[in-house]
Amino acid sequence: MAATCTHLDQVRKVTPSGQGCEECLKTGDQWVALRVCQSCGHVGCCDSSKGRHATGHFQLTAHPIIEPLESGKKWRWCYIDQTYL
Q: Which residues partner with 27 through β-bridges?
């Protein structure tokens, strides 16, 4: 059974910070998939990517919820509660 997320109050209407992972673009690395922070709009790469920058952003900021940047994908993930929304 999935856990309940207690962080939905931190979801904001955000604009993605770019069309690629901010950190990978700076270093020239490639990513597998992109995630958007639902608190501030930071775009980072997924955990299947070398940099794992979306998770790194969570570790630095404690912003708990991400969703995919790719169109047509409709899910969210809460890092703190470790559950899909």
A: none
Nearest-5° angle of CA 61, CA 65, CA 71? 125
Using the predicted structure, report yes or no on whether residue 3 has a pLDDT greater than 90: no
Alpha helix ranges (H) inside the chain: 22-27, 53-61
- Reported as a single tens digit per residue, the pLDDT across 18-33 is 999 999 999 999 999 9
User: What are residue 84's DSSP bridge partners?
Assistant: 77
φ, ψ of residue 19 in degrees (nearest 5):
-100, 10
**CA–CA separation, 62 vs 50, rounded Å?**
21
Question: According to the model, what pLDDT value does residue 2 have?
Answer: 52
Q: Which CATH superfamily, name and number, covers 9-84?
A: Zinc/RING finger domain, C3HC4 (zinc finger) (3.30.40.10)
